[in-house]
Amino acid sequence: MNLPLPGRLNRYVSRAGKAVRAERIAYARSKPIAHDTVLYESFAGNGVLCNPEAIFRHLLNRPDFDHLTHVWSIDDEQAIARFEAEFAANPRVRCVRRGSFGYWRELSTAGYLVNNATFPPAFGKRPGQVYLNTWHGTPLKLMGFDMPNGAIESANTLRNLLASDFVLAANPFMAETMYEDAYRLRNIYQGRIIEEGYPRIDRQRLTDAQLGDVRTELTRAGIAVDDKPIVLFAPTWRGASFSDPADGLDDLAAQTSAMQTALGDEAVVLLKTHQIVHSLAASRPGLRSILVPNTIPTNVTLGAAAALVTDYSSIFFDYLATGRPIVFFTPDADAYAEGRGTYLPLDQLPGPVTADAAEAGAHVRGLLDGTHDAHERYAEWVERFTPFEDGQVTQRVVDIVFRGVTSGRRVRAARADGRKRLLFYVGGMRSNGITTSIVNLLNAIDHEKYDVTALMPLFRAEDPLLNRTRIHPAVRQVFRIGGMNGSKAVQLRRHARNRRGLPPAPRDERWHTALWDAEWSRVFGSARFDWVADFSGYSPIWTNLLLHSPNAPRAVWLHNEMAADRERTVAGRQHLKRALGLVFSMYRSFDHLVSVAPELTRLNRAGLAAYAPPERFTTVRNLPDVERVVRSAAEPLASVLEPEEPTPAWVSELSSPAHETRWFVSVGRLSTEKNHARLLRAFAQVHAQHPEARLAIVGAGPLFADLSRQVSEAGLTDAAFLTGLRRNPFPILAAADCFVLSSTYEGQPMVLLEAALCSLPIVSTAFGSVRDALPGDTIRIVEQSDDALRDGMLAFLRGDVPPSTLDAAAYTTEVIAELDALIASGQSDAAFTSPIRTF
């Protein structure tokens, strides 16, 4: 019996497995490249299939490639058995189990890599390897960033495509619609796009003998076909994730039976399932008599079929090359188009379209017996989607990839539109000021001028996932998935150096440079950027990674008085001290150190003088999301609550139209630098004089329990409220009377811009950059003491603090001009003097 592991043990086992894999990869990567070895993989090791199979068999049978050794990655027992039965006697052919030590050795050392899908996240192509990604079909369904949640779903696919030297397109539509647009290869991809057709389609041209072999193999598999025409039913896979396939096999069995009944005894209907559910289908006794076995390549099956019934599967594009009838059976067309979407209207397909299985069978019968004419759009689609299928596609692809022959071949670079390519590391995307700032910046930037990429971790938590959806759709989102390669010894060496707080590696420590260059390549492959920025500025891992981008101007953002932030203490721990110390040590390798307010630039220039020369410090202010603030502020106060959350007292009181209370509000993380404890002490004095005064502190953080206790001990439970994190705080701002900020230090608080957009009077302590926080002089600034903050709040109650305002359009224009000037300012000598970029 397999029992689930306890959570902690499960995590331990998972970490142990990753550590073993990392050691295997590190060992394999220490070996030289075997330039005469080709590693093939199809559908994550599902068998010897698709375009890689066609290329493999072509190379194996050409005398001028007798020097090559061929290795297949397979992760299916039956497929391994079939492979060994066919190739055991061939010394130049072998297989490895996907994920094994042998697999990582071959993946790390093979001179050529051929895949029709993706290698695992830990894979990083080494210099000297040649990677051909053939993909596995012309897309009808939306792909890549065009899919719902496509950025995350496509993270490893995009990573693989960027790593490849060649991507193969069956036609120009696929090259442009899928590679350049859906996967956003335009502008950044440095490999080549081959538009020569699909090698696997060459295999559809069957001789009479080959057709006989197919029928014999079907008979051996228990499928009675005799001499009848074969009608192939090949529906698409309908799951949401390859890691959790849905079968729907009962429906498929019933649909196949209905088609067979409509066709009668003149033809036989066979079922071809998607690779991801084939093993499930093969386990069903009721399907064995109609299920095409995986031993027959899909395109050989297509070559043997007299007609095809499919829905949204790209298999029909291949079948167009035969010139034979296609019928489209789409029982869930509306739901599918709405949920996944298609590139081409379903009513424009090159064959009859029906939602009824029996009717699909009747259409096939009419097309086969000649009572129905060929579809009016069929010839047009053949010309558009199979223009190069002449039976010689494999030869031309091999010429390009293995012979280096490009003359007279359709191979080109990815298109570029002239925009400057920007890369921002955006941080962990938790709800905080940095996240708000980068989202607003990415939404306001001129996307006709800049091609923008956002780099981030792969999220699991709901909060960052939700914040990610606010990023402008034109932004290419890249996720760092998988783990850094490198042996345990190298990683321990890296961690030990970090713990000692040492500066970046000296020029002779090539191991450090090689480690991070390999990580950059693993994440970004061949991608190139014209300008790179660490917008977060708090994590040495990400800062180090960006410093290993191919040569480009680099900027790092300073969102606070960074020297003071490094000393921040929470619960007796200075949790930023080591990390920021390492980040500070890398400042000298950046061209620009960007603070978010002019006065903050002055403070950081002075406080960080030991880490970078003064001329590299500059300013780009934060931007509010004006539309979101204005729109959200107009929503009812109840909209700030989570679904089914009971209405707390503060919402009822704040939303009452007849209330006589005066509400102060503060929004921010409950952490040391915000000094909410001072705010509560000052408010206690205000409340003693004005019992009608109320205070709402919006936010979450490590000091929530301490502040809750302070509220209780001060007897303020009916007057001061900790609302917790609210994803939409703006109705609270709109309902309140005065915004108050009690921080010890800040950058340029986004909340002050948002409070001004809500036309709130503002009282703030005199942190270093407060006078630059808003254009004009509308903030009531008080000293950093309990009494001074109290007096500022009392001044508001007397009517002495007017509302703040913000000319949003003018301010946004100014800030975007600051960013444009920074990007245009080019590169200092930082990249040339930095030891990190020295080889």
Key structural traits:
disordered C terminus; elongated; disordered N terminus; seven-stranded parallel sheet; 39% helix
**Strand content range:** 5-15%
- Count of DSSP helices? 34
Low confidence ranges: 1-5, 239-246, 831-839
CA-atom Rg in angstroms: 32 Å
Measured as a percent range, the helix fraction is 25-40%
**Global outline:** elongated
**Spatial strand order of the main sheet:** 3-2-1-4-5-6-7-13
- Characterize the main sheet: 8 strands, mixed
Class per helix and strand makeup: alpha/beta
How many E-type strands? 26
End-to-end separation: 54 Å
- The whole-number mean of residue pLDDT values reads 91
Outline the structure in words.
This protein has 34 helices and 26 strands. The chain is an alpha/beta fold. It has an 8-stranded mixed beta sheet with strand order 3-2-1-4-5-6-7-13, with helices on both faces. It has a 7-stranded parallel beta sheet with strand order 16-15-14-17-18-19-20, sandwiched between helices. A 6-stranded parallel beta sheet has the order 23-22-21-24-25-26, with helices on both faces. Strand 22, helix 29 and strand 23 form a beta-alpha-beta unit. The longest helix is centred in the first third of the chain and has 23 residues. The radius of gyration is 32 Å and the shape is elongated.
